[in-house]
Amino acid sequence: MKFISTRGQTPALGFSDAVATGLAPDGGLYLPETLPDFSGKLTSFEGLGYAELCFEFLRVFATDIPPETLRALINASYTKFSDPAIAPLKPLGKNLYVLELFHGPTLAFKDFALQLLGNLYAHQCQVRGQTINVLGATSGDTGAAAIHGLLGKPGTAIFILYPDGRVSPLQERQMTCTGAENVFALAVDGTFDDAQTALKEVFGDQAFRTRHRLSAVNSINLARVLAQCVYYLQAWLKLPASERGNVEFVVPTGNFGNVLAGWMLQKMGVPIRGFRVATNQNDILHRLFTTGEYRVGDVHPSLAPSMDIQVASNFERFIWFAVGRDATKVRTVMDTFKRTGAYKFENFNRDTFSASRTSDAEIASIITRVHREHGYVCDPHTACGFKDLSPDRVNIVLATASPAKFPDTIQRAIGLEPTHPSLEALKAKPIVKHRIKATPDAIRAFIEARAV
Ligand SMILES: *Cc1c(COP(=O)(O)O)cnc(C)c1O
Questions:
Q1: What CATH number does the domain located at 89-106+223-420 have?
Q2: Residue 21 — pLDDT band, cuts 50, 70, 90?
Q3: CB of 9 within 8 A of CB of 327?
Q4: In angstroms, what is the span from residue 333 Cα to ligand 1's centroid?
Q5: Beta carbon of 400 within 6 Å of any ligand 1 atom
Q6: Number of C-alpha atoms within 13 angstroms, CB side, residue 63?
Q7: Which residue among 110, 238, 387, 405 is the active-site one?
Q8: Atom of ligand 1 nearest to the CA of 381
Q9: Ligand 1 pocket: which of 138, 258, 386 to mutate (most atoms <8 Å of CB)?
């Protein structure tokens, strides 16, 4: 299968090349040239284990990887999950389920994609006889998940920049206590934006980039979106037949990567009724889905920090479908948005999406209420998903992080502090971090000395 850019000004690539490239050279995002139709295969998928289902799904896209190799890469990617179901679906009440996506090594849903991406990178190194240096800036969850996807993988090194003193202590430990020799956690003197800006310059240095075979880890990689389709598919398959036609997935949303995966699966023939885009107070997507206008805002730090975004980096993929798969129109939208900070869609078709917005005060009261009503402890991101559920649908709320990652917020809401054995174990390990200035020169010098 081939993958094309949403901006249509760069050649189509096979799966492995599109994954290795990340952002397309024309600034667009990769999408399958045509979406496959799984509607005739759903019966044969019933009862498959998570990794096997993932293989049956991804083999349709990753046609340039031999099937047995792909199967082995996928199997290896889901061995570090602590729940045997990988993504357990738990009934909470009438017409209400929670899909727990936090049983991977860093206790957030990003492990589903980044465990696999790490193995795909390592596989490519092996096939090409080359090394790769992965570079990224993080405000928390993505960096930790990327590190745990690559740690100890031969032929790879990973350099993650984060703002010193501005990620949660547990997130910092997840990045700095790995003990792995190919992992470099760089504590930047400055903000996340300072780190991001310096990093962009390093990537802009073509000679340096080529010499060290740098690859960016970010939220727009094609493999991330496709890997995330699988838990929607498995959750849908687990439901009784009488409920399958009426499902609404409720997705705590930031960069729109997670909910986009579910929506694309629907376009591939899985009869899902709708999707709820649940935002926190950083509500650019809620405003879009209610008014048809996409307008940039300031970031206001919230209790659900992994959803604190200004613009949703994966949203361009939805735009491509929304404007009739027309790359010229996508370029017009993105150009206008870049120049003016806003784009107003005429006759905006929100398809099967609805949206909600949850303030910090509401997050706290929802955590309390869900605990009281259902005996269930949800993290602050997941709490956004429990706002204003549709009474006439079978709601499946995606739980994107473990409550144990946010002990203070939970303690204040329900008077109990959640714990998790893997986080407790981290507290005993030494922190290894490298303090660094947020300048391209400092970053280049660091990489120059440690790159593989
Ligand atoms: C990244 C993240 C989100 C947002 O996911 P997107 O794919 O960016 O929409 C939500 N919750 C948690 C815990 C996350 O780490």
A1: 3.40.50.1100
A2: confident
A3: yes
A4: 25
A5: yes
A6: 9
A7: 110
A8: 11
A9: 258
What is the DSSP secondary structure assignment for residue 341, as one 8-state letter?
Answer: S
CB within 8 Å of 204: residues ≥ 6 apart? none
CA distance 152 to 137: 20
φ, ψ at 436 (rounded to 5°): -150, 150
- Locus of tokens 């889901």: 78
Residue 191's pLDDT is 82
Closest CA to 394 of 244, 226, 258, 271: 244
- For residue 392, what are the CA distances in angstroms to 101, 232, 389, 395? 25, 20, 9, 9
Asked whether the whole model's pTM tops 0.90, one would answer yes
The residue type of 345 is: F
Placement of tokens 């078709």 in the chain? 349
Cβ of 401 closer than 6 Å to ligand 1, yes or no, is yes
Torsion sign (Cα): 391, 395, 399, 403: positive
What is residue 88's predicted lDDT score, i.e. its pLDDT?
98
**Residue 252 CB–ligand 1 contact under 6 Å:** yes
* Domain ranges, ordered by start, for the chain: 89-106+223-420
